[in-house]
Specification:
Blueprint lengths: L11 H6 L3 H11 L5 E2 H8 L3 H14 L2 E7 L2 E6 L4 H21 L2 H6 L12
């Protein structure tokens, strides 16, 4: 019997707030909040089209959720804009989602550690 492969980019945050492509991209950015992100890499990891990833990132840039970080070769990289008020709220909600999953699985070390990310967004809880 073959088990269905879980869809990439569906973690606790997307399960709670909705499985939209926008939420999946946002969750990816929250998971990698201190890293530079290339749009092509986001598309590949989440198994979404590059045009859709560009569309979502353009919207996030317009809303101030992401900002350009640097260019490597010909690739523009982006980082989560932690100064944005809504991003601060997203980060809090993201951590709360992880805490709920950690509690469900009895992982008290995560809850008390103050780690910003760690359980890969508790994918497929």
């Amino acid at each position: 019997m073959t088990k269905n492969k879980p869809k990439p980019g569906i973690g606790a945050f997307s399960e709670i707030y909705g499985r939209t492509i926008e939420n999946r991209v946002l969750e990816h950015l929250l998971e990698n909040q201190d890293l530079d992100n290339a749009i092509g890499d986001i598309a590949r990891e989440l198994e979404i089209s590059r045009p859709k990833a560009y569309e979502v990132m353009k919207m996030f840039k317009k809303k101030g959720y992401v900002k350009k970080s640097r260019i490597v070769g010909k690739t523009q990289l982006y980082i989560l804009n932690k100064d944005n008020r809504r991003v601060k709220l997203f980060l809090k909600n993201f951590m709360d989602c992880l805490k709920i999953v950690a509690e469900e699985y009895g992982d008290r070390s995560f809850i008390n550690s103050g780690r910003s990310v760690g359980m890969a967004s508790a994918r497929n809880f």
